[in-house]
Amino acid sequence: MLIDDKKEKQDEEFRKLISHSKKVLRITEEELWDTGKTLDSGAFGKIYKGEYRGHRVAIKCLNPKNRLSNYRELICLMECHCPNIVGIIGAGPSPAKKCLMFIVMEFARNSSLHHLRSARFDKRIGNPWQVEYAMSHAFLWFLHAANGLEYLHEHCDPPKIHRDIKPGNMLLFDDCRLLKLCDFGTARDEDVSLTSHQGAIRYMAPEVFEPGTNGKPNRYDRSVDIYSLCASFWEVFTRADYPRYYQPIEGCPMMVQKLLRRGLSKKVEQRPKIRDIVRFLEFVVKKISPLPPARCNLEFPPTELDEDESTVTVSANNFTEPN
């Protein structure tokens, strides 16, 4: 009976999502040009680099088996109007199959924060390609990610929980001066009872794994996103994988480390609210003064981008280390 009730609720949600999705710009496969370059892949499907009406775009080809989460992501992107959340251009629904075939989004020329922070050596071309960035760059990216999360937590109605915050879901634009959150397939409204394990294990808050009462899964709230955000930026500051317990960060201001330590607390009540994180980071970034642009260079392997895009310079004109 419980299984039947759950399926009935999912079917009802699916019908509502399909109805809502009719408002999005419909794009046909014939209107897209696929370059054949895969940007990412996973259980959701694959993301390709393509062109739409002369503009470079990211084409997210979706796995039809995940039809409910596919439509959830589409609706979430349609409803979010924030400069730090990736923009949607249109989608390709298949009315006959009652599924969503692809979502067309803006193209992140500078890849993801994961690729940037972990870029050390590319075996395919046999050459090292070090990506250098100052801690001050991380402060700006931290602020942008927090802005996007604040929009989800404070300005959506009902509030949304991303549930898969990590460096790989933070895209870089404008020569790495702008960061946007992406991948909303696991996002849910906060008024829904959340108990399932979602996201990358390394960034999951401890309460996601804890058993609930009477043998039921433990319920969690938006604070899981705070934990994931702070774990992500611990990695950006250190360029190491987060070890699941806090370690001091060499050269990082104590006030920033205090924020990260609170955000990574096992006690949910000790974690700061996203609005407080944003206000604090706004203060930090305002205290930052100019740096030479050459301080931070990002070079992609030629196999990933066209030859004319093989080198990207991250301009640091607007930020540097705080005094």
UniProtKB/TrEMBL annotation:
SUPFAM superfamilies: Protein kinase-like (PK-like) (SSF56112). One of its GO terms (biological process) is immune response. Residues 33-284 form the Protein kinase domain. The lineage of its organism: Eukaryota, Metazoa, Spiralia, Lophotrochozoa, Platyhelminthes. SMART domains: S_TKc. It comes from Dibothriocephalus latus (Fish tapeworm). Pfam families: Pkinase. GO terms for molecular function: ATP binding; MAP kinase kinase kinase activity. PROSITE patterns: PROTEIN_KINASE_DOM. It comes from the Eukaryota. InterPro entries: Kinase-like_dom_sf, Prot_kinase_dom. Keywords: ATP-binding, Kinase, Nucleotide-binding, Serine/threonine-protein kinase, Transferase. This is Protein kinase domain-containing protein. Belongs to the protein kinase superfamily. STE Ser/Thr protein kinase family. MAP kinase kinase kinase subfamily.
